């Protein structure tokens, strides 16, 4: 029995047993590469301000204690909990004490979930920080890392007044019916701005 061959129009016979050519991997678009680069940059940049870090030290001490407790709890829960440095803070990653998303206290940031890995946390209850394509989820054009870094800078400016300012701002926003992160919370309007900054820019 002769081998069956398929003859395309105007072409030579092609054997069905011919090796298939593997698909060429899709390269990220320019926009995707820009987003990924900004994401990495936000996690690696450090702000050299020793005096600010000294003012922020009481908040940082609280954050370290809170983050370390969550780190132990995360390990016990089977999470990929780990500790690193980035974004002007000690980073507690995949930490169940990160609240519904993330908590920044002084120069510490406690993440519920893993913003550094496209795979995310092995715990399905953890927050996901990437979309279906593996790109970082953005908030008004910037990453959450950029947002949280602004809170560390706020703490370096305000020192011991940082937590009272956060509490009063959040309550003021709730009073206006805007939610904790609404425009009434002056500690959130700047970090949510584009570009992200410690405080909302004044209008000229």
Explain briefly what this protein structure is:
The protein has 204 residues and is α+β, with helices and mostly antiparallel strands.
Structure description:
- With 204 residues, this protein is an alpha+beta fold.
- The protein has a domain at 50-158.
- It is built from six helices and eight strands.
- It has helices spanning 30-44, 50-55, 57-76, 144-158, 162-175, 186-189, and strands at 5-6, 14-15, 82-86, 89-93, 102-105, 108-111, 138-139, 142-143.
- It is globular and about 60 Å long.
Task: Supply database-style keywords.
6 helices; alpha+beta; 204 residues; four-stranded mixed beta sheet
Elements, N to C (H/E): EEHHHEEEEEEHHH
Order of strands across the widest beta sheet? 3-4-6-5
Q: Got a strand count? A: 8
Give a short account of the largest sheet: 4 strands, mixed
Which structural class fits the helix and strand makeup? alpha+beta
Query: What share of the residues does DSSP label as strand, in percent?
Result: 5-15%
Q: What do the pLDDT scores average to?
A: 85
Write the layout of secondary structure elements.
Elements: E1 5-6, E2 14-15, H1 30-44, H2 50-55, H3 57-76, E3 82-86, E4 89-93, E5 102-105, E6 108-111, E7 138-139, E8 142-143, H4 144-158, H5 162-175, H6 186-189
């Amino acid at each position: 029995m002769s081998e069956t061959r398929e003859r395309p129009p105007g072409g030579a016979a092609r054997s069905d047993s011919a090796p298939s050519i593997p698909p060429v991997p899709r390269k990220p678009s320019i926009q995707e590469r820009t987003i990924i680069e900004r994401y990495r940059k936000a996690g690696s940049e450090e702000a050299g301000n020793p005096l600010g870090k000294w003012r922020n030290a009481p908040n940082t001490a609280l954050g370290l204690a809170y983050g370390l407790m969550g780190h132990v709890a995360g390990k016990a829960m089977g999470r990929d909990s780990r500790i690193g440095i980035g974004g002007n803070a000690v980073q507690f990653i995949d930490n169940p004490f990160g609240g519904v998303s993330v908590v920044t206290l002084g120069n510490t940031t406690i993440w519920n979930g893993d913003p550094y890995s496209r795979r995310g946390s092995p715990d399905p209850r953890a927050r996901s920080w990437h979309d279906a394509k593996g790109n970082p989820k953005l908030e008004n054009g910037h990453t959450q890392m950029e947002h949280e870094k602004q809170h560390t800078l706020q703490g370096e400016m305000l020192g011991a007044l940082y937590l009272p300012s956060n509490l009063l701002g959040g309550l003021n926003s709730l009073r206006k019916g805007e939610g904790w992160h609404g425009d009434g919370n002056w500690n959130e309007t700047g970090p949510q701005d584009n570009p992200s900054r410690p405080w909302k820019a004044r209008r000229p």
